[in-house]
């Protein structure tokens, strides 16, 4: 077992087809967006960590024609990731969330955090988040760097995906977008 945390962050270039990414973005005008918040387990509240600078999110993937394609590619990424690990004690997952779409307008960001996603478990699904899938749908923006561990940038081009463990050892965030709009999608496996 590799004890270097970086070895558990897998980047898959061209994971999503560029034309499908473009189609997805073109249909995002038809979804409802809300400002992203973080769950506070201490008091059960949802709050932003960056005031009104947090990104916008949408859980309405069903309104986007490419959603089945994106969901299949997410499943494929989780399968590839677990196969690459070759761990006898971790060879599968129980389920994964529907895709969530992210929109970062100018000056928007995502605060440094780790993926302890409480909202996945509403009483029907049981488990803990084990893997995060994240893909960027465009690269015609400036800023918006994806940062892990507070200082390490992972570079994205249209269609690039990354998979990593959903736990406190993998803090990550997105720096403010300085020009244009950054679109991405995310899912979590358990």
Explain what this protein looks like in three dimensions.
This protein has 190 residues and is α+β, with helices and mostly antiparallel strands. It has one domain (7-189): Jelly Rolls, CATH 2.60.120. It has helices spanning 18-27, 67-85, and strands at 10-12, 34-35, 38-40, 45-47, 56-58, 100-104, 110-113, 131-136, 142-143, 146-148, 152-154, 161-165, 172-174, 177-179, 182-189. The protein has a 7-stranded antiparallel beta sheet with strand order 1-12-8-15-6-5-2, with helices on one face. The protein starts with 9 loop residues before the first strand and ends with a strand.
CATH architecture: Sandwich
CATH topology: Jelly Rolls
Q: In percent, how much strand structure appears in the residues?
A: 25-35%
Secondary-structure-derived class: alpha+beta
Defining key terms:
single chain; 190 residues; Jelly Rolls; seven-stranded antiparallel beta sheet; 15 strands; 15% helix; globular
Write the layout of secondary structure elements.
Elements (H helix, E strand, L loop, with lengths): L9 E3 L5 H10 L6 E2 L2 E3 L4 E3 L8 E3 L8 H19 L14 E5 L5 E4 L17 E6 L5 E2 L2 E3 L3 E3 L6 E5 L6 E3 L2 E3 L2 E8 L1
Antiparallel strand pairs: 1-12, 2-5, 3-4, 5-6, 6-15, 7-13, 8-12, 8-15, 9-14, 10-11, 10-13
